[in-house]
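Re: your question from the hallway

Yes, I did run it. Sequences:
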Amino acid sequence: MDYNEKTIEVKKIFDGKIIKLELQTVELCNNKKAEREIIRHNGGVAILPVTQNNEIILVRQFRKPYDEELLEIPAGKLEKGEMPEICAERELKEETGCSADKISFMTVMYPSPGYTDEKIYIYKAEGLCEGSLSLDEDEFLDVEKYTLIEAVQMIKTGIIKDAKSIIAILFLVAEINS
Amino acid sequence: MDYNEKTIEVKKIFDGKIIKLELQTVELCNNKKAEREIIRHNGGVAILPVTQNNEIILVRQFRKPYDEELLEIPAGKLEKGEMPEICAERELKEETGCSADKISFMTVMYPSPGYTDEKIYIYKAEGLCEGSLSLDEDEFLDVEKYTLIEAVQMIKTGIIKDAKSIIAILFLVAEINS
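Structure:
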């Protein structure tokens, strides 16, 4: 069936540094109208750094929406018009200090399709060469290394909760097992 | 290190049916100030329905933020104060028509921790008994069944892009393999 929703009206509510918010009136496939609350986001990139010893590099940082420190793979926001691969290289360098011989695309994921249009492009980085971090002015994080087995265990026990990180690590496991 | 960000000021921008938006001024661990754009969401529940034949039930629905039809596991928004298990049962029934003998908690995931506080509780439903759908007034979807192997293939080829669905299916695979 075609359940396409036709945009009737767009009301722009907020235009921020990270997100925009708009309210759409749409026409449903039964010709009734409904409201949709939509976050516009430029898209993000996440990178799973895998060392020669098959260790995973994670960053621990404070996330204000949850008031919690989270363990995540390095990630960042796409600049307007920026190629995801370029962003992946930059964020890997900034957040872990590493440069990589090989950066390969794993998948793209949609974090919460009910209200946000963000797409997160996930890459794997291999052949790592360690250097020094160059964080943004308001960015603070610790870099930590875990074996793949430890990382999977931290997913199963709910220590790693971040969606892009879970997906990247379980993708790597699925790659190895296939 | 303690990278806690202290809330200095909260400015409420929008209060909608699905999301709220607030702008926070925070004090960083270096005593500088920064702005945080934060989406408040009541939390969601997603259910991976697994049939006696080890098939997965997915729903195909139009998602306005992407202007795309997506394949997802059944899911819904938590009502205020609602227990996630109760919500899981309700959404499973509404979106697939199924009731389940057994609903078990898989994990909780954070879809995009940079700007939203949404938590998605993921459950597995087994011992399914099929009935008729009871969708919300502005909800339209198709119910489809896939083998677990097909579902994993659809993740690897990027056909399934929704984060909660990827995580639930790869969790099930990890459970089976462990």
